[in-house]
Specification:
eight-stranded antiparallel sheet, three-stranded antiparallel sheet, 7 helices, disordered N terminus, disordered C terminus, alpha+beta
């Protein structure tokens, strides 16, 4: 990058669900000032999309091409991703493998976190008609009440309300399911949390989008753009399914309920999914993203 500066700004807390996988990285939990964090993150192995626009997501047997985007800062070093997530949140996110800041212009941007591939088999969409989005919201609100007690203890703002920014949507043609939540807090702040689960022949990949309300109106288009440029390798795509392939024990509807960490799994009629998610220790995590690190660079002609 021509200019390596970090733009530090406040982004309120986000609700985010992550499965726990058998990944590990040495995370330094020693007390550290914000200034020291910024200095350390500045030295991480960031890669500019102007230099390399293709992100190889090896665990998913896929790649994300950022050539059509204005600009992006990419972090793929797993240990550094884990350290950044811990510094930003105060808790560990072992399933997160990629941290990418995507810019719409020199100022507006959003963050995506890519999680480790879940190899549960081909996920059918047969149960999609059973999805009850409003019941999901009710259960999320109920779950946040218990989590608020922990937030109060740790000195964080509490969740006041959760609503749909965009209700769960299943795009069979592109092979992904998507939803977006608007989370409001008792200090008057609010934030959006959006998740696209990109389906493949043998499972799926979680991509979480974090953004501010100033760009919420363009995010559905941006999410489509990211998903269209996230491609499984030939033979691993959702459309490559063949008779005899492993079928997941749950459908797309159950996947959404499970990603939200709610009891709605049972309501989709996929009891096996409850057991599948339980074995993976799925749970709701309040994502206290107090700050994001940014490395801005002037747009250069490609």
């Amino acid at each position: 990058m021509k200019q390596k500066t970090i733009n530090f700004f406040i982004l309120s807390f986000t609700i985010f669900l992550l499965p726990i996988y058998h990944l590990s990285a040495a995370v330094d939990k020693s007390p550290i000032t914000q200034e020291e964090m910024i200095d350390n993150v500045y030295e991480f192995d960031w890669v500019s999309s102007d230099i390399n626009s293709q992100v190889n997501v090896l665990g998913s047997n896929a790649s994300l091409n950022l050539n059509q985007f204005y600009y992006a800062d990419i972090l793929t070093n797993y240990s550094q991703v884990q350290q950044l997530m811990f510094w930003a949140n105060g808790v560990e996110y072992p399933s997160t493998t990629h941290y990418i800041d995507i810019f719409l212009d020199n100022e507006k941007s959003y963050t995506i976190n890519i999680a480790k591939f879940t190899n549960d088999g081909y996920i059918k969409g047969d149960d999609w008609d059973n999805v009850d989005a409003e019941s999901f919201i009710k259960e999320l609100k109920s779950g946040s009440e218990k989590a608020n007690k922990e937030r109060i203890k740790n000195g964080y703002a509490t969740v006041e309300d959760i609503t749909w920014h965009i209700k769960p949507s299943y795009n069979k043609e592109l092979g992904y399911v998507f939803y977006s939540l608007l989370v409001k807090f008792n200090d008057g702040s609010e934030t959006y949390n959006s998740t696209a689960m990109v389906l493949g022949r043998k499972g799926y990949t979680d991509i979480t989008f974090l953004f501010k309300d100033t760009i919420a109106n363009v995010m559905p288009t941006e999410i489509d753009k990211v998903v269209k440029n996230f491609k499984y390798n030939q033979g691993s795509q959702y459309t490559d399914f063949k008779s005899g392939d492993k079928i997941a024990a749950y459908g797309v509807g159950a996947l959404v309920a499970g990603s939200l960490g709610i009891k709605g799994l049972a309501k989709t009629g996929a009891l096996a999914a409850v057991l599948a998610f339980a074995k993976k220790a799925w749970f709701i995590v309040l994502f206290p993203f107090i700050f994001l690190f940014r490395k801005l660079s002037p747009k250069r002609e490609k």
